[in-house]
Amino acid sequence: MIEKDARQQHAQFIETLEKGVRVLEVFRNGQTSIGLTELAHLCHMSKSAAQRFTHTWCELGYLAKDEHSRRYRLTHKALELGFLYLHTDPLISRALPALKLIRERCNLTVNLSVLSGHDIVYVMRIPGPNQTFAEMLPGRRMPAWSTSAGRVLLSALPDEQIRASLASVEPVPYTAHTELDRDVLFEQIVQARKQGYAFTRDQVLIGQLGLAAPIRNVHFQAVAAVNITAHSSNWSAEKMQQELVPLLMEVTQAVSVG
Q: Most buried residue, 6, 50, 88, 131, by CB count within 10 Å?
């Protein structure tokens, strides 16, 4: 049994609704389809409860069941929720022209990200040349500590919250150069705060360079980050910072509300 967190202890928190959403979120791990027994296990609920939730989601159109394999998959209706977010969030419409401008000027991949717990979520992606299918899709989550966008968003938090976030995760070596030392990561995040942008190299992919700056709201809070990714075969760290930092800072300041 899962212990209740602070959210679940609130009088207005509906646990049944949370369990239902948990069924959809199980696909976050990358499964294209899932059986009832595995779903119940991953969602920490009984098989009968999982059956009721999956039946309801099927009736609502968010899940579909293959009658031969008896496995469930998400349907296009789940995508409609993401579209509603993209269509209604004012930050998205405000940031899109800025991302397109960066893409046109440097011919590199440009992303818009927001902080979600200890991760970032890519909410908008304008791919550069030679990008993989996965790198083109919005909605992907990545650990905040590992990316330039995540580090610059973490840098807007008080020091104690940064340390708490780093203490709550287990850094994994995506590459031989991935920084795993929490003290070093903390210093790099603080450095991003001082200089107004974050730069990463070889942290998630060998040869990948990342550059990110925050978008701020009227209260000067960092609400999102714009990041540019390049490959070291075409860009050096020095060239990227010298040529793209001014552009990135100009664009993010223009999008920020102040």
A: 50
Measure the CA–CA gap between 195 and 181, rounded to whole angstroms.
Answer: 21
Judge if 213 and 96 occupy the same domain.
yes
User: What pTM was estimated for this model as a whole?
Assistant: 0.86
Residue 127 sits in the same domain as residue 241: yes
Sheet with 34-35, strands from edge to edge, namely: 34-35, 71-74, 63-65
Nearest to 236 by CA among 214, 211, 213: 211
DSSP type of residue 131: -
Per-residue pLDDT of 201-211, as tens digits, reads: 999 999 999 99
Would the CA dihedral through 101, 103, 104, 106 be positive or negative?
Answer: positive
- Express as a percent the part of the chain with pLDDT over 90: 86
Which among 115, 173, 119, 141 is positioned nearest to 28, based on CA atoms? Answer: 141
**Together in a domain, 101 and 165:** yes
Q: Tokens 């993989």, residue?
A: 132
